[in-house]
Amino acid sequence: MPTAADLGAIVLTLKLAALTTLILLLLGTPLAWWLARTRSAWKGPVGALVALPLVLPPTVLGFYFLVTMGPNGPIGAFTQWLGIGLLPFSFAGLVIGSVVYSMPFVVQPIQNAFEAIGSEPLEAAATLRASPLDRFFSVALPLARPGYLTAVVMGFAHTVGEFGVVLMIGGNIPEKTRVVSVQIYDHVEALEYTQAHWLAGGMVVFSFLVLLALYALNPTGRRR
Description:
Layout: H1 4-37, H2 43-51, H3 58-69, H4 74-82, H5 91-117, H6 120-127, H7 132-143, H8 145-160, H9 164-170, H10 180-189, H11 193-217, H12 219-223
Helix pairs in contact: 1-5, 1-8, 3-9, 5-8, 5-9, 6-7, 8-11, 10-11
């Protein structure tokens, strides 16, 4: 059966995933809208930067988070100047690392949904004297609902399954930075395979149910 430490890791992981997904929706929506609509020469570099975590090893990201947020890094110097201390090995550091690492899993589905809308619905709304904000909230957002559903599910699930980034930037502090993936690693290191099976099996079931829900709730994805 799961131990108290296992349950604490589960609660912390769910808290991290929920907060990360919420932040990514707030930051990712305007970014995805800009990427979907702009003709700027910056679209390619910005899109590549957003997608970078897809191909970059998590330990590389974690290492540079440690360097930049450490006492000699620019972010670390700034946070110390603000009086909030250093971010590595804290929950706030985990959130920042998770936001960056899970960004493409939220931004890209929303961007694809905005691009699939096309310009005709927005132009039709403009002929009815709808303002840009009205066109966005009344036309674009409802039509992009499948993309948002995919973004929420994939962003949450990807954050739950993180290991390399959270271990590098958060370490292994119980009730503070020890998430489920790190807890499984601890069990395996200690040869506690029964406890590791409980958590690992739960992750397998969770991942399957997430994908099943995504296919069940997103008819557009099923047709494709």
